[in-house]
Amino acid sequence: MSEMQIASFKVDVTPPVGAQMAYDINKQVDTPIYIRGLILDDSHTRAVVVSCGNGMYAYIPKAEMYEEGGYEPKASTCTPEIEQRLKGGIAEVLQSLR
Question: How many domains does the chain have?
């Protein structure tokens, strides 16, 4: 039986000051957006558990939801570009595992 290894990570994917947000230009960062997660590895299988948030009770819609409309994108302070920032942060973590 292999020994289980566990590691955690945290990646800041906050849009920078000056980036367009849903209602205005990001003038300051009050609540950073982080990707957090755990990596579980027993040398045979690796699992990565990922979560994303800014510590607030808010929703981060997928880019396609902005085109579809509805409550979620209207209530979000993010723009459609946030999905790519999140995917980029996750890709960064996964690349570091190689």
Answer: 1
Query: Measuring CA to CA, how many Å separate 69 from each of 9, 52, 82?
Result: 33, 22, 16
Instruction: Domain of residue 74: give its range.
Output: 5-96
Q: Using CA atoms, how far apart are residues 66 and 75, in angstroms rounded to an integer? A: 11
Tokens linked to 81: 């570009």
Instruction: Compute the Cα dihedral for 28, 73, 23, 85 and give only its sign.
Output: positive
Q: What is the pLDDT of residues 51-71, one digit of tens each?
A: 877 666 666 777 888 788 777
* Total-model pTM: 0.63
